[in-house]
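User: quick one, fold this
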Amino acid sequence: MHQLYIMRHGQAHMRAPSDELRELTATGIEQSFTAAQQYLSQLHFDHVFISPFLRAQQTFEQVKAAQVIFTHSATVSWVTPDVSTRQAVNELASLKGEALNVLIICHQTFAGRLASQLCDGHEQGMHVDTAAIVDIQTEVFAPQCGIFQKIHCI
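Assistant:
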């Protein structure tokens, strides 16, 4: 069984020159570090995929500061707020290996829609709080194949 963790970035400032450049607040930095330390630091990830948006990149920096272990990491455009989950499901399905542990660091809308797509087969989306981590278990990365385990909140 694969294990997928979908982490929403920490609290971000509301104002910035563009959505892509919104930074984490001091609270967001603390949230991200605490969530990673409490829920991810005992795991080894085969893959970490991160949104290119600044607040997700800053969240990833806190994940690394919490000494979360991972083999591969990549910044990818297919986990940004307004994209369809279809490409993410296809990218996850193309990963090679058995019993993979995968972490995605992304945004509220995408995190909720991907969790709903994998577990329920639709993109209506569930709410994911800042720095919360959705834990899904699945035999294959495909719509309606995921089993929602829990949501870790700080």
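User: anything notable?
Assistant: Residues 1 and 139 are 5 Å apart (CA to CA).
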